[in-house]
């Protein structure tokens, strides 16, 4: 897995161990992601399908894209499409993805890089593998997380952040059995590079077989753990495996433990941990628009049809 790694985890800062008064977060729910296709036909798992939106808040959804090994001519992306009212966070673990939008944002990400697009008042964008990758094929694996915007930020100007893998904060567990990558937010006083409107934290953690991760977590944030690959337990011992998500209750820290033996294809346990301060506002979500009311969604469709979201660059 080419997402940023460290040959010797013992050189990293260690996470603190929970204190005597710290409470572990219990597991409320475990769900299994259905599989389907998105965009021009690339495979996805709908990571948070089946979870009540009230438990996801401030998130809307997350897709695991791949993991797939494309043959030459097979790599796919999305056509140009609009967004308004939220942010898309695209984190590439393996492979290469290009982004371009009608507000001037754009770039190429690979192997642990992240594109953070704030759609805000509205834009058009496209995500696709570069032409050379389409021709030769290759591995593709990543996630896309949709982060809601509060009412007072939904019509802000669009913004684009290009976060390189070398910028993420890297931590390890007290026994150096887990690598914790902080992409956004803060874990135990260590900040990730992503700038967010909604207070939140996004982490990619890799656990060695048998390792246990006790991750400090903001008490006023919700917490979701999604398994990218491997198998283990979450919280008080609830078993999880590839393609499953766990919703956690309140507490000071969350626990993830890797089983002692893993599959040869996925020798370690990889999880995405996401959480944020709930916005607790009405949600009206239809296709590419995430607003507060049905009338605002209809207005977004009308503005898009009138060309108010900009134009596809030449």
TrEMBL record:
Keywords: Iron, Metal-binding. This is Pirin family protein. Its cofactor is Fe cation. Belongs to the pirin family. Fe cation binds at residues 81, 83, 125, 127. It holds the Pfam family Pirin_C. Residues 203-310 form the Pirin C-terminal domain. Residues 42-147 form the Pirin N-terminal domain. InterPro entries: Pirin, Pirin_C_dom, Pirin_N_dom, RmlC-like_jellyroll, RmlC_Cupin_sf. Gene3D superfamilies: Jelly Rolls (2.60.120.10). GO terms for molecular function: metal ion binding. It comes from Nocardioides panaciterrulae.
């Amino acid at each position: 897995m080419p997402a940023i790694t460290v040959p010797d985890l013992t050189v990293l800062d260690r996470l603190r161990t929970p204190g005597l008064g710290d409470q572990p977060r219990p597991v409320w729910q475990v769900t299994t992601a259905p599989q389907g296709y998105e965009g021009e036909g690339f495979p996805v798992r709908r990571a948070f399908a089946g979870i009540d939106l009230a438990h996801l808040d401030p998130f809307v959804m997350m897709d695991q894209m791949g993991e797939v090994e494309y043959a030459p001519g097979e790599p796919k992306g999305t056509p140009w499409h609009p967004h308004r009212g939220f942010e898309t966070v695209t984190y590439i673990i393996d492979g290469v993805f290009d982004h371009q939008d009608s507000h001037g944002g754009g770039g190429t990400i690979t192997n642990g890089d992240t594109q953070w697009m704030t759609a805000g008042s509205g834009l058009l964008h496209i995500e696709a593998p570069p032409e050379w990758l389409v021709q030769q094929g290759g591995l593709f694996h990543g996630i896309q997380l949709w982060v809601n915007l509060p009412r007072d930020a939904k019509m802000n100007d669009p913004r684009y952040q290009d976060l390189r893998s070398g910028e993420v904060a890297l931590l390890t567990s007290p026994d150096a059995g887990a690598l914790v990558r902080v992409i956004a937010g803060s874990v135990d006083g260590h900040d990730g590079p992503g700038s967010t409107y909604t207070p939140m934290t996004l982490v990619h953690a890799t656990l060695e077989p048998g390792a246990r991760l006790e991750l400090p977590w903001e008490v006023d944030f919700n917490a979701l753990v999604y398994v990218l690959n491997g198998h283990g337990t979450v919280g008080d011992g609830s078993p999880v495996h590839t393609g499953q998500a766990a919703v956690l209750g309140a507490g000071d820290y969350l626990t993830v433990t890797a089983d002692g033996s893993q599959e040869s294809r996925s020798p370690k346990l990889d999880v995405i941990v996401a959480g944020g301060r709930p916005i607790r506002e009405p949600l009206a979500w239809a296709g590419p628009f995430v607003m507060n009311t049905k009338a605002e969604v209809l207005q977004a469709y009308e503005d898009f049809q009138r060309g108010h979201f900009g134009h596809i660059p030449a």
